[in-house]
Amino acid sequence: MIMTDQQPITPDPWQSLSQFTAARIALGRAGISLPTRACLDFQLAHALARDAVNIPLDFTELAERLAANGISSLSVQSQAENQRLYLQRPDLGRLLNPASQQCLTAHALLDFDAVVVVADGLSSTAIAHHAEPFLKLLLPELQARNYQLPPVCLAKYGRVAIGDAVAESFAARLCIVLIGERPGLSSPDSMGIYFTYQAKSGISTDADRNCISNIHANGLSYAQALYKLLFLIDTAEQLKLSGVNLKDETSTASEEIQGLK
User: Fold this and answer.
1) Angle between the N-to-C axes of helices 59-68 and 124-144, in degrees from 0 to 180, rounded to the nearest 10
2) Which among 48, 94, 159, 166 is least surrounded, fewest beta carbons within 10 Å?
3) What is the pLDDT of residues 25-73, one digit of tens each?
4) Are residues 98 and 193 in the same domain?
5) What distance lies between CA 117 and its chain's CA centroid?
């Protein structure tokens, strides 16, 4: 038995394994209950996860940060009118509202190769933390491939499929969506990337997409995620498809990943 914060804690025999995971294992016990510190840590993690879902993303501030890095953007919105409706009606988050559709039509003066969409999804924290630094790595790589790109589209109250309508508006064959993932108790700020080849609004399904998930400080790094995404893009261009028939065959070769940092 050990003493923590003046309370007797019975240690867990799995304690040595906690160094390998952020999961809540080997917490010990105080009598028949969890130690106070473990309870407080859980409550904090739960509060951070709830905040990630419920606190709206400041798209104006994000657009300003992107502009400061020379990244132009367009602001669009789904058919969800507010945060509460967005959470209750996932179907509305997949569709652009009429004003946004008109905005994209006005900017679609020529065909583009790829479109990048940033949507708040279910974690505003994830996009606030990770969208800007990842875009600073991604966009130069796309430009190096001589892709014609429209401004980055910032989609308020957006689900993954909102990217289909954006890509269709710009006649872009490649659709890349950065989105906040459903938060967990150990990762409230996890960002995901969804890639679709020849996305079509109302036609493309999850089977047509490739997903790269768990991009956060304790998960996949920006360089690792970019390495996987570029592999998917290059392979999709060869096979003319994405989704279940496009396999992620990337290795963890440090040389290639280091070159993307």
Assistant:
1) 30
2) 48
3) 778 778 878 888 888 888 988 898 888 888 899 999 999 999 999 999 9
4) yes
5) 10
